[in-house]
Amino acid sequence: MTKSAFRVLVLCTGNSARSQIGEALLAVRGAARTAGRVEAESAGSRPAARVNPYAVEVLASEGIAWEGRVPRRRFIGACRIRPTKRHRRRRGVPFALRSRR
After folding, report:
1. Which domains are assigned to the chain?
2. Which of 38, 70, 84, 90 has its CA 20 to 30 A from that of 2?
């Protein structure tokens, strides 16, 4: 990673499909278009047991090998990613960082 690189974290609940596709596209195509200045990761608040096979199939159709990946939970420093109360009531609302204090 270069000094002026962009770090992108793609979040979702299960980290099994959409966020995996987002990470793959940013990691592979973004890095190619920006001379390696993009670093991408994905994570979920409640990771699934495995990456959705249809997501792997879609990426394979685009020429991106994504087999063997495992959904991850993401911890950032002293904060853990959790859905807000509003997110639990309504789908599609962004996540918030909550302190573990």
Report:
1. 6-99 (3.40.50.2300)
2. 70
